Amino acid sequence: MKTVSILIIICAFFASLNLSANAAVLRASDIKIAGELTFTRESTLHKGFSDLLESVQELGRKQNARGLHISTGPNDADGISQIWIRADDGLKILVGVDYGVIEVKTGAHNEAYYQRMTSHYHALWEDLKSMGYQPAMFRGGGHLSVGLKELLSRENLTRKFVRDTYRHNELSMGILGFDSQNAVPLQLLPASKLVHLQRLIKQIRGAQSLTAIQKFLQTFEDAYFVEHLRQAHPHLPFREDEFAMNFEHAEDPNFPRIELRAARPQATYEIFLAQSRLLAKRIAWLANQPEDLSFELQTPLVSVDRNSTPPVEPLAALNAFARYLEEIDEPRADHIGYIWPIWESEICEKWLRQ
Fold first, then answer.
1. Which of 34, 123, 136, 257 is the most exposed place for a label (fewest CB within 10 A)?
2. In the chain, how many H helices and how many E strands?
3. pLDDT tens-place string over residues 114-143
4. pLDDT tens digits along 71-97
5. Domains of the chain as residue ranges with CATH
């Protein structure tokens, strides 16, 4: 009997070591992040796609002159043409257009890949600038997508990530950005709808669970939805029911993903690198944490009296983000560059020095 007991203890010990090893397997370098970098210029803001498409072709010629390979890409979902830009060292990006902007789609990669491609993206920024294009800071775009393959391969990690992103409402209310027209924070839903949403988050098991959340979000009738939000937050310019977390592509056969729409277009490539690293490190950190079952928001909501102002106290949001950064050992200085512009003043400087 003693021998059997000892064997059971030994087996349990090695099993616990194995579980610990498995829990630590996921690294930030395993996580794939995709970006949608957007650029605009004054002359194309209110014109159709023809001028933008001409600019895409001009960009292709400039990139080709640098030795990159240009070819015709697939049409986008609206049937509009796109081009591939490739390099022999592995660069592969797809360039197209949307209303008033040129879109640069990075593909899904880890931080090491993006670091290797830095010189290519700097050259891309330079070529667009020479054409009069700048990052479309207030035109939408800048969305970041998190690949689901690695998340779904770990028990409960997808649910952890969705809940964590929900709880850290500062991310979609001034940290990554704030867009009440094209990336409505989920936390602004009516209280009764939030109860339903939280129930669906608790039930996340796989990609189909995320699709169920997306279908729930799509049940809002635009007129009713917008009217409710305007009554609750009369100073915010709500326009449509696009949410800060988008689960529409959770079952995409090529790249299943969660899209974080709140991120503003990145002003520099270094900001894109920092945000990609931020998300990858957060997911790797969550993989080794016990699941937090709370839905308590990390930043309390407040009333606002100015258009386009996130409904949170700036310092409260920054302090919540500080905890987010500290938990994954990320320096504040690497992330101050994309904080909501209205906050980039004494408050941000004080926060940076804390």
1. 123
2. 12, 9
3. 999 999 999 999 999 999 999 987 667 899
4. 999 999 889 999 999 999 999 999 999
5. 30-135 (3.30.310), 154-248+288-353 (no CATH)
